[in-house]
Amino acid sequence: MKKVLFTFLISLFALAVNAQDAAGPVITFAENTYEFGDIHQGDVVEHTFKFTNTGDAPLVVTNVTTTCGCTAPKWPKEPIAPGDEGQILVKFNSRGKRGVQNKPITVYSNAKSTTRISITTNVLVDNN
Fold this sequence. Notes:
Elements: H1 2-22, E1 27-29, E2 33-40, E3 44-53, E4 61-66, E5 71-74, E6 85-93, E7 99-109, E8 115-124
Parallel strand pairs: 2-8
Antiparallel strand pairs: 1-3, 3-6, 4-7, 5-6, 7-8
């Protein structure tokens, strides 16, 4: 009987820990990567990444960073309620770029972990 009670208590503790881990805001993107395909050098392209707060507390996006000045993000500054959606607009300027470009974008928020999304494209150079 003691063994059964001990096993039951351990299971109850594990459930409580897992429930605690799931609490809070969770950022869930509809897509993590967007492919622009071929573009011409000098083109400016943009894409909107949509996300949902699938957690149980308000989500606050505190910062969005990129690896170079050719990629510019815009994100919501107001909290996103549980179940609500938000958007991150990413613009890429291909001036001075050539060939395959993969640009990671890091999303910082009050969720338990940072999230990385990315854009890719192939920049064609006109030979005039």
